[in-house]
Structures are given as C-alpha cells and as structure tokens.
Amino acid sequence: MDTIELHANYSSGNSPIEITVDTPKIMGLGSLYAPTLLIPVAYRCNQLRRDDQDGPMDYILPEIHGCLAVRGEDRLAELRGEPSFMIKSRDHYRPSYTQVYVPLDSKRIELMERHRSGGDMELQLQVWGTAFIDKPGNILIDRFHSNGPLELKVPQSTWVGNVLNKWKFAQTHLIEIQTGVSKMETLAPKAIEHLRAAEDHFLQHNPRETMASLYSAFEALALQRGRTSPDKDFFADLLSSLPSDMCAKYRDLFRQYCIMLHLGRHESGQENAQQIPLQQKDAQLALIVGQTILSYISGLD
Q1: In this structure, which topology does domain 2-167 adopt according to CATH?
Q2: Most exposed of 15, 41, 211, 251 (fewest Cβ within 10 Å)?
Q3: pLDDT tens for residues 107-116?
Q4: Which fold has domain 189-298?
C-alpha cells in the first residue's frame, strides 16, 4: 500500500489527510476508444491543529483533484473523484474507501508503454483540493496539497492482466521462460534480450522490428551452439532428446517459423529488396508463437 499525505496551509505540524493507494488493484476500465484507469484509494482524516488555537477544527473537502504522470513527464492526465466523493474530518477514526479515475487515450497509453519498456509500470500521483474549515464563528477556505508526488510501482503482471488486456490495447500474454534449467543453458542471455526488445517493439506498434528482433533471439541461440543461423540442423540438434518422429516435425515447424520471421528483416532502401507490408496482427502472431517456442525450448532436458 502506498500512502500520500495532504497538508493544509492553515495547519501546523500534522498531516490532516492520508490517502493510501491500493496499487495491486489498479484496473483498466472502458476500451481503447475511451480508456480510464481506476485507482482504488482509502483515506483517513485528522482534525486540523494549530499552535495558536485552543482545540482542533473540523473541515470538509468536497472533492479532490490531481494528476498522473510517468517519470520524465510533467503531467500525463488529470484525475477525477467519485461524483459523491467527500472527505469529512469527523470520519477520522476509521478509513473510508473510494476510487479515483484517470481518463486517458491511445496516445497517452503508448507514451506510458514506452516508459514501461516491458517491465513494471512506474507512475507518479499528485493530489490537491480546497477545503472548508469549520472555525468557530467563521468558515475558512484553505488549500490541501501533497508536498511531492507519490511513486506508484504497478507490477508487470498486474498492469498487463488488469489494465492493458482490459483496454484490449495489446493482448499481451506473460509466459514464463525458464533459463539455465539444463547443463547446456538452453537460452542465452542475448536471446532473452532480443525477446524483450521484440515485446517492446510490439507495444510501440512496430511490427517489422518485432519480427526482426524475434529472429535475432533464435539466431542468438544458434550462435551459442556453434551454428551460424537457426536452420534445420540447429533445431535437429536442439531437439535431439525428443522421439525421432516428434523431433522431425518440431524441427520443420520451428524452422518454418524462423523463415517467416524474415518478413521483418528486409530493410527499405536495400537494392532489389521487396518491402512486404506487415500489420500489428502479424507481429502479434509472431510474438505469441515465438514466446511459446522459446518457453518450450527452455524446458528441454
């Protein structure tokens, strides 16, 4: 749980409001055409205190405002509270629960994904609001604000499963790839590096670069085993522990997959190179199949 404190100009010494974000329950609502990020929060209120006052004072904060950002960006989007959201200091003895919403669009999501780079999502949240203070014989208006941004780190699995796939921004599937499970250390670190690059290219809607990076991942595996490319001989050697009929069929299947990845390796401007149009759906197929093949390979005895 991540907590941010709101301070009031009128108060001295204490933090009147504590807002806690339930980071693992952050969720995407709507679709890619109208995406909204839902952030569950709990808040606890303390009465206002000043050294020159005889006793504490209550207040009402009718709504909160704020903004969401990613590292390196001043402001990504504004946040909104529930329509009936209201903080009252007399409720300070127990926490209250609500949600805040961050309306987004596809361009902002792409920006967030570029910053995420296939890992955890790191966000920054700032909150402020205007309160009515119940001072005896008078009503004061004061501003509540956080002294700095709250750093939110949303785990990759939560972000992909609860947010991206809810928006259908990219049906990304997390597949566990075991490295170093055999004496031969089946998957080279360089292969994993190229796979991560392919995932990043896919999230940035670069289908050609996605497929080129996937080929580089298999090429790195071949080079690790003394081969020049992921050809038939490489896969035959890699799959030699399987029954002969299965080995032959998987060898041909994996080899044909790598041949298909050459569609992403023709660069524009090359002499006599045919530029084949590729779409995001082609990259999606290539990425899911490639992740599955690498996951299978990593578990070979």
Answers
A1: Immunoglobulin-like (2.60.40)
A2: 15
A3: 888 888 888 8
A4: Four Helix Bundle (Hemerythrin (Met), subunit A) (1.20.120)
